[in-house]
Amino acid sequence: MDAGLKTISIGMLGAGVVGSQVARLLQSDRQELSDRSGALLVLKKVGVRTNTAREGIDASLITTDLHSIVTDPEINIVVEVLGGIEPARTLILEAIKNKKSVITANKALLATHGHELFNAADAAKVDLYYEAAVAGAIPIIRSMRESLAGDQITRVMGIVNGTTNYILTKMHEEGREFAEVLREAQELGFAEADPTADIGGHDAAAKAALLASLAFHSTVTIDEVYCEGITSISIDDVNAAKSMGCIIKLLAIAELTVKDEISVRVHPVILPNSHPLASVRNAFNAVYVESEAAGELMFYGRGAGGAPTASAILGDLVAVTRHRAYSTVGYGESDYADLDIAPMGEVKSQFFVRLQVADKSGVLASIAQTFASEDISIQTVRQSGLGKDAELVVVTHAASESSLTACIEKLTAMEIVSKVESVIRVEGAVS
Ligand code: HSE
After folding, report:
1. Which residues contact ligand 1 via a Cβ below 6 A?
2. pTM of the full structure
């Protein structure tokens, strides 16, 4: 049945957790993958930085000469799973120059140099596919790029980092402190030894840039994403949200503003338990898309790990192989709309403000007056605590970031305010 089928040779850059799963599945599912793509798929070379043996990969395929993969005239498709900016950028550009299609899982690279790489792929008439770069196994890129190509997306909200979702889930469900759960996540191998990119929100920010670019047909880079991580979220914040029937999640948000600009940001959000994203627990990811015709859609699944990420890469591999076999290319970058990024100060949200105040007459009136002085309308106020100090939790109606920042400065300077403990944005109908 293979007679007459074209052979498509693959070179892989990197053979870590994801790369070794890609190699394993390419070998074990070779027949099905070939049947589905209309060509014989052959793994020809695997480039690694140190020449150690890789379990399950034939030693004769392994080379430390990464450059030899992107220049090999027999290789048709390069799969890049090295991560990081360099040498991945240079190698991908070289591969494209040599007319190879490229599949990458590298969100940091695409969120920084995507425009350059997509332009190069366009000029060379080759594919540059990246399903695995956002939310692992979840088929969100192809859904946005192809299935929703006829609709107008208005907002995308995603839980796109499993480590932070795991930490926030454990804090919410088990009442444990951030630092303790982070330690546990590291011991279990979820969180990296250096978890900065996850807990600081930078991993999610790269994914937010890619989602915003796709949703709004514009080039958005990671530098344009406002980013706050979860390091300042305390168990008191989690419990206060819980008592309001809500949960705290780290969200990547990309939305179209009333001025037709893109607001793109990553920060913790208080969500009502009734919101579909509120039920996404542990290390799972989900992306919630709102569009004019389709309405609300939610995509849920595993956002990391060797086999789930390999599944996304192999899906791209089948698509790209079909294109190679039939001498065509798929969708490229669509940046025709070229929308501006909305300044963060103009972005409007509801806010949760938790503060310690003196417990005496007139305090509530003064606090309310301070919010009013910045034209911020209060939706609810809750007071707890007995004695000298009371804790107030104020939820505002939608207000701009700049008004809220000015209000917090004024509150902090007030004698009756001992401390503004936290300010967290609120999404959805919170009462
Ligand atoms: N470290 C990420 C996470 C996976 O925890 O979801 C890779 O982007």
Report:
1. 161-163, 198, 203, 303-304
2. 0.96
